[in-house]
Specification:
mainly alpha; elongated; about 75% helix; 3 helices; about 60 residues
Length: about 60
């Protein structure tokens, strides 16, 4: 019983740091992108407006 408690005391900080670093990587990738390679696509406003205002069945046929 005491051995499991002591093992948990050593493993728990490692898992907490691992989770925090993974959360940081996840948030960083959303902000900057991997290797700063954000892809920006420019579209005409009329195409975007037509796609947004069209019914869902029409949008499915467009793709």
């Amino acid at each position: 019983m005491a051995l499991a408690f002591l093992c948990g005391m050593f493993i728990a900080p490692f898992l907490i740091i691992l989770a925090c670093s993974a959360l940081g990587m996840l948030l960083m990738s959303n902000i900057a992108g991997r290797d700063d390679d954000r892809l920006t696509i420019t579209t005409s406003d009329s195409a975007v407006t037509a796609l947004i205002t069209a019914p869902i069945s029409t949008q499915a046929k467009m793709r």
